[in-house]
Design brief:
- By secondary structure, this protein is an alpha/beta fold.
- It is about 45% helix and about 15% strand.
- It has a single domain, classed as Nucleotidyltransferase, domain 5.
- It has 8 helices and 5 strands, in the order E-H-H-E-E-H-E-H-H-E-H-H-H.
- A 5-stranded mixed β-sheet has the order 3-2-1-4-5, with helices on both faces.
Length: about 190
């Protein structure tokens, strides 16, 4: 079993993204449109970092069984995805971004297997804890589930100002915490 988590950042396509933006149709005043665009530019890094098409992978964390979590390269995932994968929100976030970044960077990965892992129902080789823990009800964050069921909190991080080293530490911590939550809910699998 492999716990998988990724952290992302805004990619190099910021100008492409901004050129495709337009103010809402009800904005007629040029000053209001300009103000809207300036506010949008302030939010662009966060928006692009979580967008499947515009984001780039900042780091990939894996935890293999009881071993400590570690950071790996996208090209190293080829052999790892033959195992059972466990993620938290991996179907909607981690795996689609891995697939799209792999294709953009021409990395040889088992794309069909990865895509199968994103299926809403009957995903093969993948357990997405957000679905397992919520019982397909109201989703909560990993941090909130950790607090409710394990009495622990994630270490806070400021994604706008953190270093690469801090981001990697955060990613590894997420892998460790996802593993703890998985073990707690393992009797329901």
């Amino acid at each position: 079993m492999i716990i998988l988590d990724i952290e992302t950042k805004a990619g190099e396509l910021t100008e492409t993204y901004l050129s495709n933006l337009s103010a809402p149709k009800n904005y007629k005043d040029e000053e209001k449109i300009k103000e809207w665009m300036e506010n949008k530019k302030k939010e662009v890094n966060r928006e692009l970092a979580i967008d499947q098409d515009y984001s780039e992978i900042a780091c990939i964390g894996v935890k293999i069984d009881d071993e400590p979590a570690k950071i790996v390269k996208l090209s190293e995932l080829r052999d790892l995805v033959s195992e059972q994968i466990v993620t938290f929100n991996g179907k909607s976030f981690d795996l689609p971004i891995l697939i799209k970044n792999g294709l953009k960077n021409k990395i040889d990965l088992p794309y069909v297997r990865l895509k199968e892992m994103t299926k809403k129902w009957n995903a093969v080789g993948h357990i997405d804890l957000i679905e397992l823990v919520s019982f397909n009800g109201q989703y909560k964050s990993l941090d909130e589930y950790l607090q409710i069921y394990l009495g622990i909190k994630k270490t806070p991080i400021d994604f706008n100002t953190c270093t690469q080293e801090e981001l990697e530490a955060h990613c590894k911590e997420d892998c460790e915490n996802t593993y703890k939550l998985f073990k707690f809910f393992e009797p329901t699998i």
